[in-house]
């Protein structure tokens, strides 16, 4: 089991371009979470998805950000018209079930470091 | 508002010394708390969770609801414990699994 795979590891985009970050959960995991870590800050929740459903997107910025987890393929975090403030590390985590009970816990990916120039 | 506070950005100790990484939380519900660790060039991984009352790699953490704390402790630090440590609080109705993270504490264990 390769664990949670995120790609690319590093992504450089010019202001105004689009960024697509991919996350393949662990085999058998149907719950995906995206977190963002700005410089000098802790991880901040963005969105929680199950296959074909967005369960909780309360941490997503209202504009330019979207996420999906299709029936087939990886989960995608999409940032349109990137700005310098989007530069951060974006982490994906997966779990076999909702982790609020603590029974499952998350498995994190290595993250994608987005730099906007 | 829900919040997790790790007051120390950096904690530096000598090998063999006791370690306590502080974590305080603010949450009106029944808290579920975790410690995650990130070793150099590795991904974030779960260290322990309060409901398990377990000891992992010599680390323990006790939930103190009166003081709203979940400090991580180890009696004798080892050099391999050097890493970034994050305290996290699970919130969300229906157990959606959303975590609130503290800002993290870098533990540096000197030889």
In terms of topology, how is this protein built?
The complex is a heterodimer of chains A (117) and B (111).
Chain A: E1 5-7, E2 10-13, E3 19-24, E4 31-37, E5 43-50, E6 53-56, E7 65-68, E8 75-79, E9 88-95, E10 107-108, E11 112-116
Parallel strand pairs in A: 2-11
Antiparallel strand pairs in A: 1-3, 3-8, 4-5, 4-9, 5-6, 7-8, 9-10, 9-11
Chain B: E1 3-5, E2 10-14, E3 19-21, E4 24-26, E5 32-38, E6 45-49, E7 60-61, E8 72-74, E9 83-91, E10 98-101, E11 105-110
Parallel strand pairs in B: 2-11
Antiparallel strand pairs in B: 1-4, 3-8, 5-6, 5-9, 7-8, 9-10, 9-11
The separation of the N and C termini of chain B measures 41 Å
The helical percent of chain A reads under 10%
Residues in β-strands, percent of chain A? over 45%
Number of strands of chain B: 11
What does this structure look like?
The complex is a heterodimer of chains A (117) and B (111). Chain A has strands spanning 5-7, 10-13, 19-24, 31-37, 43-50, 53-56, 65-68, 75-79, 88-95, 107-108, 112-116. With 117 residues, chain A is an all-beta fold. In chain A, strands 2, 4, 5, 6, 9, 10 and 11 form a seven-stranded mixed beta sheet that branches. Chain A has a four-stranded antiparallel beta sheet with strand order 1-3-8-7, with no helix packed on it. In chain A, strand 7 (65-68) and strand 8 form a beta hairpin. The radius of gyration of chain B is 14 Å and the shape is globular. In chain B, strands 2, 5, 6, 9, 10 and 11 form a six-stranded mixed beta sheet that branches. A three-stranded antiparallel beta sheet of chain B has the order 3-8-7, with no helix packed on it. By secondary structure, chain B is mostly beta strands. The A-B interface holds A 3-4, 31, 33, 35, 40-45, 48, 55-56, 58-59, 91, 95, 98-102, 105-111 and B 4, 6, 32, 34, 36, 43-46, 49-52, 86, 90-92, 94-104.
